[in-house]
Amino acid sequence: MGATQSGELSSLSDRANELKAFKNDIPQEKARQRIEHQLTRYTGDLSQATPRVLSNFLFSMEAGGKTQFHRCPHAGAASAGKRIILTCKREECPDPRNCPHIPNATIPNTCKISSSPDSVRNTVSHLRAIYRRLGKTNRWVDGSTAEENPALSTEIEKHIEFKEKEAVDALVQPIQATPLFKEDVDNILIEMRAQAANSKTLRERTGWLQQAALVSILQASGRRPGDIIRLHLHLVLYLPEKSGLLFIMTIHKTAGSSGISRFAIKRQQSAARCTVADLENYLRALIAFRHNFNNTCLLFPNLATHHSKNKPYSWHAKNSTMRLDVTNKYIEWFAARLNIKSKVTLYGIRIANALETKELATKEALARTMEKGGWTTEVSAELYTKFFPATSNITAPSTLVTKWIAEPSENRVLALINK
User: Are residues 219 and 353 in contact, defined by beta-carbon separation less than 8 angstroms?
Assistant: First the structure.
């Protein structure tokens, strides 16, 4: 074998190892590997597990849960959601330190902490994937065939239903953040834009415009903050005639199971309340600031640190993004100035988006929506993932994305922003 061929094979081997390492580093893949390891220790032999064994395994994992199930008189009170309740918060309570609402109730009161229904469903999805990889792809009937998947069974479905009923009965509200609705977000954005306009240096102005662009995109898309800051710069494209923006996410929380994710944001007539204008203002400031876009290829890099161009995008997506804890502190500061009483967080913007875009017909639907912090696939597809015509006929989006990263699309925002 010639030196050239040997070098090419070595290069391909290195690339294969890099891709394998990247796949194993995806959060969903790490979670699956962790659950598989725990299940192996629990069962001793994965292939011999039955639905009853898996149900018992799910119960055994509840000790690591973080959701509180109230079975006490405080379930509907202001203290609901706290791990330990020191005093009863009911207005009518005659003795808050010795709550008399049920016989022999004592304070402090520690309610059951267990896994939420959403956590259980997520674990079950991993279990099903684990067994599919072992060749067990059929629904479980009685275990008479080797292809039956014990996680794809009636017993496991009943286990999930039990957890959902338990959550409703205990008035569980496993919402991860207080909703921060559009009116409040709009006011916070006005404050951020004002800070940018009054900045004394280009560095300071660029920083405030970055904060405003992030918050504006979160409000318009309802996506996870941690996913938005990992967006690839070349995968933010203009819709035809600059009528809006198309965002393509290759690295996100559910990438391991759902693959590439897309969403579009339309341009608004009023630039003062337009997400597209916020992003354009931010990118123009980066250009004026002489930011080296090629070092990280991130849409939202950390502007306070130096970035090595020798690292791949996947590395920068983990280590070089802007800091969400800083943004959270900023919006808390603005919320206090605007007299917003509730606790505000970036994730609260996602929760509010979910509640505003989903029809809530029943109390159970409300609880599940609050728990999930998201929306149904149909609604999401209808509202946010309309793909512009240039890519509507592509049958292999992963191939398209790879091509755009290697050969940036002529429709990318950075190429057309000043045209």
Answer: yes
